[in-house]
Amino acid sequence: MAKLSYAKALNRALADELERDQSVCVLGEDVVAGIAQFTLGLAKRFGTDRVIDTPISEQAFTSMATGAALRGMRPVIEFQIPSLLFLVFEQIANQAHKFSLMTGGQVSVPVTYVVPSSGSREGWAGQHSDHPYSLFAHVGVKTIVPATPSDAYGLLVSAIRDDDPVVLFAPALAMGLREDVTSELVPVPIGSARVRRPGSDVTVVAVGHLVSVALDVAEELASEVSIEVFDPRTVYPFDWELLAGSLERTGRLVVIDDSNRSCGLGAEVLATAAEEMHLVAPPRRVGRPDGAVLPFALALDRAIQPGHDQLVAAIRAVMK
Amino acid sequence: MAKLSYAKALNRALADELERDQSVCVLGEDVVAGIAQFTLGLAKRFGTDRVIDTPISEQAFTSMATGAALRGMRPVIEFQIPSLLFLVFEQIANQAHKFSLMTGGQVSVPVTYVVPSSGSREGWAGQHSDHPYSLFAHVGVKTIVPATPSDAYGLLVSAIRDDDPVVLFAPALAMGLREDVTSELVPVPIGSARVRRPGSDVTVVAVGHLVSVALDVAEELASEVSIEVFDPRTVYPFDWELLAGSLERTGRLVVIDDSNRSCGLGAEVLATAAEEMHLVAPPRRVGRPDGAVLPFALALDRAIQPGHDQLVAAIRAVMK
Amino acid sequence: MAELAGQAVTAGTASPPCPAGHDPAGLYRSMRLIREFEECALGLVKSGEIVGGIHPYIGEEAVAVGVCAALLPGDLITSTHRGHGHVLAKGSDPAAMLAELCGRATGLNQGRGGSMHAADVSAGILGANAIVGGAAPIAAGAAWAARRAGSDQVIATFFGDGALNQGVLLETMNLAALWSLPVLFVCENNGYATTMATSGAVAGSASGRAAAFGMPSVTVDGMDVLAVLGATTAAVARARAGQGPTLIEAMTYRYGPHHTIEQRIRLSYRSEEEIARWRERDPLDIQGARLPAATRTLIDAEIAEVIAAAREFARSSPEPSPEGALEFLYASGLKGRGGVADG
Amino acid sequence: MAELAGQAVTAGTASPPCPAGHDPAGLYRSMRLIREFEECALGLVKSGEIVGGIHPYIGEEAVAVGVCAALLPGDLITSTHRGHGHVLAKGSDPAAMLAELCGRATGLNQGRGGSMHAADVSAGILGANAIVGGAAPIAAGAAWAARRAGSDQVIATFFGDGALNQGVLLETMNLAALWSLPVLFVCENNGYATTMATSGAVAGSASGRAAAFGMPSVTVDGMDVLAVLGATTAAVARARAGQGPTLIEAMTYRYGPHHTIEQRIRLSYRSEEEIARWRERDPLDIQGARLPAATRTLIDAEIAEVIAAAREFARSSPEPSPEGALEFLYASGLKGRGGVADG
Ligand SMILES: Cc1ncc(C[n+]2csc(CCOP(=O)(O)OP(=O)(O)O)c2C)c(N)n1
Ligand SMILES: Cc1ncc(C[n+]2csc(CCOP(=O)(O)OP(=O)(O)O)c2C)c(N)n1
Ligand SMILES: [Mg+2]
Ligand SMILES: [Mg+2]
Questions:
Q1: Ligand 2: distance of its center to the CA of D309 in Å?
Q2: What's the pLDDT score for residue D290?
Q3: Which of A55, B63, B241, D147 could serve as a FRET partner for B307 with CA atoms 20 to 30 Å apart?
Q4: pTM
Q5: Which of the residues D152, D185, D328 would you substitute to probe the B interface, choosing the one with the greatest number of B C-beta atoms within 10 Å?
Q6: Band (B1; pLDDT cuts 50, 70, 90)
């Protein structure tokens, strides 16, 4: 079978769902032209009444998707940059997320929000480089950060079919990944993690593009330490059961993720593990610094992002 | 000396700073009338060109405060409800917070955002009852949740004088507190916590109005367990040093705070403690459930909020 | 205006409008229902049976009733923080609405929503919204979905003068005009946003905002239900014909406080004389005067009974059980973790 | 328009305007500087010396120059994602600007901002902004502060046609009109927001939006620097006199891609003919034709040298040290924790 790229996987998931279900549509800026890759070719195939270019009115069209969802549609919204999620935080966290409970279950809001190329893309600097998935995990909106093309496909399909709002982050540094797809692409359940590599000494929870980094490190340190690489895939709801099982075996935990440190996903994983799971040594996390704002110059941008060397150091620290 | 209420303390802090510094002004909805108590009487005393009613244009006036701060003013903005912070998340997290770094230190943005009556006020239901301070701790905006009238005074004064943006949450359930003020009201440094009650068996980190709950529980369980009540006062930056000292003595940790569980402040405290501090038993946190949306009916609203009974259970759990 | 209104009253009775009807008595009845409902609710706030208070709609009844009477039962609305009138005018059961305000399991939202979130999808009410301007794009989205589904549904989205300065409302007007969506933007201009006079907040005007997006608008006497009905009927016809949105600005007034909390604070943003002046043009009196006195008396008595029964229903209804506090949080049935670690 | 423009050129030279001057050669020089700067920057994007790419301003030079020439040195501007022209027109050092784009320690922002965040407070530039519509309220706030400080400063806030549908911009227009703030809302209408034609996104018009808030507006030929200068001069006079904001819509065109990334994707949202048609009215040619040929040649040669020197400066400047990655994060000097736990 052919190599499937991450971007193409998202594109195919969307095409398949547009094909399968007439209530699915795609809204966003420049989605007809497909400048973010994700929607390339879809307008041509499905028409511009299902793949719809919007004005630069993120707040309005985000809540319009909510309204359309209340009337039976399953809109997918594309945001061009991660920080646009700040701009529509009200519309997602305070409107879409709350309708089901507030109405006593009268309605559901099946909207999917997608940010292709989230996190730092080199040279995009302060206002375009956040990776704010922890914010959605905090308010309790289902949040997905796929690490591989087949997961990107399968999780996006599940998100679109899900009856709740779901945010999908496609990390900029994963968008170029390619995968040999040997079996059919299938939906991946939201909330189920996956052990990417089994190991017995330490569990490394790695998110999104950092899964590859963790796998590399695991290989590299193989003679020194047996590393289990755990990919949550869904950051909210998190697959605590699978993690507990992993820690039952390893008793050691390192989390590497690309969000800010304070109150980020790493904090949640460490906290839950400390509360409820088997730990024989202090856990460690690797992420962006507190309050990180990515500076423009490449060397500065890179200095702030979590990566290989810090992960190696953290693994060695928990093994001490 | 007289009893000082929490609301009055905030009011006095503002009056003192308006008096002291001509660059301070207050902006918000209905601040002239002072319907949120916080600004009562200030327009009369300082004039409506320093205490200014705005249209319901939160996004515009929040960034206007940023612009005014770039030109030397020190605006204080009042938001009537906590979820308005969702609406202006872009303006605070992506604009005000980032200007200093992005400009290479050319400017600073000394704006203070205040939410009097944050968290659940009985009967305000889904869209008005959030307590989203963890969101600001995540993006790295200085964030304060005072527990007492004198701290409310001292921290607000410090926030106004601070050269960075600062968010102050005044918990609804603290707004009615009164305190015997025996000495002069003074600024309280941002980032410094306080041990409210010393103890030797377990450290209870309690935030905002939950400090009183923790003190009550400490008293109640005094014969059973010696509880140290730790009030962070500032949730970002957190006073890790003082916490480490406390845990050095107790080795046991419970956090009670009124934000959602996942990626909330409780997670951060547990994670940091697990990473770096002395713990002899698994820590525990008490907060709102994952993804909490407060239902309207009082019994339901209360069922979701952290409180006395859960704290007692958590303390007993860590002492086991 | 009177002309337009006159037309409207006699027009379009082929399919039965909901629920006030176009007949003068029905319109009066619906307004009386709202008035008495609000009086009753104020009592329940005082007695503590409604927790947290309400934003009373008294004085503005003609707007909700005039607008909703121009809609068909299958049409939709979204409402505001001051929403009881809209919900009742669109046809929700007052007993279930009152039970909602009292936080009962029998309430419209099973006690989960309360005053500011009352929703009744079966009656076409997509929800009150506690965020100023927050419902407008939701309404536009529903209208958009209706159009795509080939339906000729129309949706009216209510908002106050305060919302005229909220970005998302203006964005929505642009989109609705651009895409010719069947939305009625109903601005209830009651002169104030809490304590802020409209003139202190709104540069330009409501109709100027509509014009900015090429949207027609009409300003009507919001104390006269026939004026509102007339203007709305014309806007509904336009929307149903695919000619896009209209802004309807209804000039009205709230007699009472912004919110019942206000009763505890002394505020002086408006004068007693101003209130008295508006009360002279009470919408119930204006419409009542068009009816035989006997009809009015009959309706008043009937409504008194309806409200008494609603109160009885609300009071005797069970409260929801705390175990179900997180029911409905996720439509998919996901159960998040509680606020305390297990074990 | 020509009338207005004619007036402006001869008026107000008592205090020296910045930095183009009002004289025809100065205006041309400033536009040529921007053009050559952008050509140079495009080369540096290609060579990888500018990381991440840029939004080139080529074709729109008359707008930045016409607006900034009407301002005094002490006046202020805010800029956009397509901001190089504004920054240069307002008087920043091209070498420091180019160094910023190359991420050097000698850059305007010490390499922290890059193309979309260039700021130079000493020259009155309160920053480019990467969020569409994001700078307008910041500009209004600065104007408000200036007024309170008793200054007669004016601030021009640039934005594109795409921003006309962004709520916060409309909220800001209302506030600026309401409070009579000395703000010039400069809409660079280049016909597109990325691939979206203005007609597909904007119901109504730019001037209609100004009218909605009772704000005067003027639409000018954005390819003719004198037209822009004239309209802006009138607006500046009004703002300085305390008569409030004006919207200036400059009809212009970008010759190149929305962003240099676009060069890698095949897009077909506009035709080659359309581009060619606009190129016929090149702003440099229009203004150049008003000068003696020799003057033009002289200026072109001078600018070539300035740009060559700027490139040399940028290239030879040091990169900032990674240890300082979080410098300036907090103005108060707070040091947050790093991304990894210590010890
Ligand atoms: C976005 C937003 N800002 C502020 C509030 C607080 N608030 C609730 S109602 C209100 C006034 C609304 O005035 P208007 O729109 O005129 O409606 P009215 O109350 O007069 O019916 C305000 C400021 C809110 N709910 N939402
Ligand atoms: C609020 C927001 N939405 C989307 C984007 C992504 N984006 C950057 S530039 C742009 C187009 C802007 O068009 P316009 O305002 O006309 O300016 P132009 O690029 O034509 O100069 C978009 C959609 C953004 N930066 N900010
Ligand atoms: Mg009003
Ligand atoms: Mg444009």
A1: 32
A2: 97
A3: B241
A4: 0.96
A5: D328
A6: low
Instruction: Work out the pLDDT band at C1, boundaries 50, 70, 90.
Output: very low
Residue D16: C-alpha distances to residues D73, D74, D238 (Å): 8, 11, 19
The residue whose CA has the least distance to atom 13 of ligand 1 is C193
Q: How far is CA C58 from the centre of its chain?
A: 12
Distance from CA of A229 to the nearest CA of C (A): 24
Q: What is the pLDDT of residues C245-279, one digit of tens each?
A: 999 999 999 999 999 998 777 788 999 999 999 99
C18-324 topology per CATH = Rossmann fold (3.40.50)
Residue ranges in chain D modelled with pLDDT below 50: 1-18, 343
- Judge if the beta carbon of residue B115 lies within 6 A of ligand 1: no
**Residue A2 pLDDT:** 75
Distances, alpha carbon C339 to alpha carbons A94, C144, C158, D112, D309, in Å: 20, 39, 37, 41, 62
Identify whether A97 is a catalytic site residue: no
Percent of chain B with pLDDT over 90: 96
Please indicate whether, in this complex, the C-beta atoms of B262 and A236 are within 8 angstroms of each other: yes
Q: Please tell me the predicted confidence (pLDDT) of residue C21.
A: 66
Residues 6+ positions from B186 with CB-CB distance below 8 Å: B154
Which class does domain B2-181 fall in? alpha beta
Q: What's the 3-state SS for A158-203?
A: HHHHCCCCEEEEEECCCCCCEEECCCCCCCCCCCCCEEEECCCCEE
Residue D275 CB neighbour total at 10 angstroms: 14
Domain ranges of chain C: 18-324
What is the token pair recorded at D122? 């000493």
Closest CA to B79 of B71, B89, B70: B89
Is the Cβ–Cβ distance between C138 and C125 less than 8 Å? no
> Quick one: which atom of ligand 2 is closest to the CA of D194?
11
ipTM over 0.90: yes
User: Is B276 in Cβ contact with A274 (below 8 Å)?
Assistant: no
Question: Which tokens sit at B94?
Answer: 């992506």
How far from the centroid of its chain's Cα atoms is residue C96's Cα?
Answer: 16
pLDDT tens track for B196-252: 999 999 999 999 999 999 999 999 999 999 999 999 999 999 999 999 999 999 999
Residue of C nearest to A88 (CA): C168
Q: Within chain A, which residues score under 50 in pLDDT?
A: none
Q: Where are the beta strands (DSSP E) in chain D?
A: 76-78, 155-160, 183-189, 192-193, 196-197, 217-221, 246-251
The architecture of the domain spanning A194-319 is 3-Layer(aba) Sandwich (3.40)
Contact yes or no for D204/C213 (Cβ under 8 A): yes
Catalytic residue among B128, B131, B209, B278: B128
- In the prediction, which pLDDT does D342 show? 62
Q: Specify whether the backbone of D76 is left (phi greater than 0), alpha (psi in -120 to 50) or beta.
A: beta
Classify residue A195 as exposed, middle or buried by CB count within 10 Å of its CB (0-12, 13-18, 19+). middle
- Which structure tokens are listed for B10? 């905030």
What's residue D20's pLDDT? 63
What would the pLDDT profile of C136-159 be if each residue is shown by its tens digit?
999 999 999 999 999 999 999 999
Every domain range in chain B assigned CATH 3.40.50.920: 194-319
The alpha carbon of residue A201 is apart from the nearest alpha carbon of chain C, in Å, by 26
Q: Write the CA distances from B104 to A240, C44, C75, D27, D176, integer angstroms.
A: 42, 58, 55, 30, 29
In chain A the first and final C-alpha atoms are separated, in Å, by 44
Cβ of C161 closer than 6 Å to ligand 1, yes or no, is: yes
The pLDDT of residue C15 is above 90: no
Looking at the CA of residue A56, tell me the nearest atom of ligand 2: 3
Q: Has residue C10 got a pLDDT over 50?
A: no
Is the minimum distance from the CB of D193 to ligand 2 under 6 angstroms? Answer: yes
**Residue B273 C-alpha, separation from nearest chain D C-alpha, in angstroms:** 11
Please, which residues have CB within 8 angstroms of residue A243's CB and are 6 or more apart in sequence? Answer: A193, A203, A205, A230, A232, A269, A272, A273, A277
Atom of ligand 2 nearest to the CA of D164: 15
